[in-house]
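Run log // design_07
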């Protein structure tokens, strides 16, 4: 327990005894109340010039608060009474962004549920797991409640996978297959995931589908569906050496350039070498991967082949296979190389899930597994940052070339209305030449 003792002017020492959890909840309640008051004050102040024919303000404080509402948060359940606004303007109504109508649970807590599920907790374990977050408020999270939430997430996922992609222009995409164990089935779930980068540098999930062992037909089905819903061909796709994806990509989006994932390539090369040589070989492979330009990378590949090609031909052959497609990233902005060398945006998101699926049988059905994977991705997506130098993504989309990562007085034929021009760049009057200042 937390004990606070204070001396007052009468010499008395009132004692306040509260637990840290109680103090956290009280502090959260007060901060939210203050934020709600500030939000309302700002709203009313910003609209004070709106008057009726008699000069009376149309937007004023109501003077009364809404009914007290209990909201479940990470610190536990707190009671909040939101201030009210009387907005008499036609078809206008004040809606709090901090505490939207009918919200009873913190969005962060909503995110915790699919994470807990994906980490192996069954519906029967939720109450115990959430007690650490909510205390007695976790009593409302019964197995029936969680099952109902799972059904809701599945319906949300169904609607999401049918959404229109018209107007979406993805410049880069990453594709990977993520596998999950299914408790009630023998075959694992091959979750086909595609994440893309928009011209403003934002990353977002494009597709998440059930595929049969990453086959060509499975990937082709995903890509054809994306194209049917309005997705245009991306400039560059990044993925591992899985032949299924690349064969499907060439069929559906033949104009898209290809970049193989260096993380997967390094693992495959090292697998062909004895363990005593792997540490040194890994350093050499990193020299290739992080080379300052294409010429240097080719020189390092030649060095590797000379050193290992005679005794470990398979390792050298694995490295040289698809060599040109391993070095495609050199034709794009150097600031983006970090993002384009690997499928890490997908790998890192699912890292903890992959680790957990080795110890648990996972979701009870393929539908539940897909819905949970989607929910996890949606939660993660809200925290993703843009790619480095996001303004350069639009230039790539416009057709600007970046040999060895640098653009230098290049001729292209961009569509001016689609080109976002950052400060260090100017577009010539003829709309054709782009010059770096």
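design_07 sequence
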């Amino acid at each position: 327990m937390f004990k606070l003792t204070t001396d007052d002017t009468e010499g008395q020492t009132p004692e306040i005894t509260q637990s840290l959890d109680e103090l956290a909840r009280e502090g959260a309640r007060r901060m939210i109340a203050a934020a709600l008051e500030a939000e309302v004050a700002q709203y009313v102040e910003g609209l004070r010039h709106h008057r009726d024919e008699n000069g009376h303000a149309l937007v004023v404080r109501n003077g009364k608060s809404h009914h007290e509402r209990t909201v479940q948060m990470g610190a536990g359940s707190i009671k909040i009474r939101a201030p009210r606004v009387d907005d008499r303007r036609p078809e206008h109504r004040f809606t709090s962004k901090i505490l939207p109508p009918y919200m009873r649970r913190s969005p962060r807590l909503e995110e915790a549920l699919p994470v807990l599920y994906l980490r192996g907790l069954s519906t029967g374990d939720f109450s115990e797991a959430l007690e650490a977050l909510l205390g007695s408020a976790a009593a409302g999270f019964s197995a029936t409640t969680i099952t109902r939430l799972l059904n809701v997430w599945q319906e949300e996922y169904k609607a999401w996978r049918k959404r229109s992609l018209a107007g979406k222009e993805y410049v880069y995409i990453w594709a990977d297959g993520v596998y999950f164990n299914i408790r009630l089935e023998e075959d694992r779930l091959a979750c086909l995931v595609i994440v893309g980068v928009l011209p403003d540098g934002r990353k977002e999930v494009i597709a998440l589908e059930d595929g049969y062992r990453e086959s060509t037909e499975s990937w082709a089905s995903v890509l054809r569906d994306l194209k049917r819903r309005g997705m245009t061909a991306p400039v560059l796709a990044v993925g591992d050496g899985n032949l299924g994806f690349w064969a499907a990509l060439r069929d559906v989006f033949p104009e898209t350039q290809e970049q193989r994932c260096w993380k997967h390539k390094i693992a495959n090369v090292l697998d062909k070498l004895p363990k005593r040589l792997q540490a040194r070989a890994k350093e050499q492979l990193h020299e290739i991967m992080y080379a300052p330009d294409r010429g240097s990378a080719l020189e390092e590949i030649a060095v590797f082949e000379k050193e290992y090609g005679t005794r470990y031909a398979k390792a050298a052959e694995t490295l040289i296979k698809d060599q040109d497609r391993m070095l495609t990233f050199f034709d794009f902005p150097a600031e983006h190389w970090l993002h384009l060398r690997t499928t890490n945006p997908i790998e890192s998101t699912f890292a903890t899930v992959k680790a957990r699926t080795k110890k648990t049988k996972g979701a009870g059905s393929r539908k539940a597994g897909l819905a949970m994977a989607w929910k996890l991705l949606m939660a993660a997506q809200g925290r993703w940052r843009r790619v480095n130098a996001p303004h350069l993504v639009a230039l790539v989309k416009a057709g600007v070339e970046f040999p060895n990562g640098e653009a230098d007085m290049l001729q292209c034929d961009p569509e001016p209305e689609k080109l976002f021009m950052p400060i260090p760049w100017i577009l010539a009057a003829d709309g054709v030449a782009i010059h770096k200042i």
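The two ends are 63 Å apart (CA to CA).
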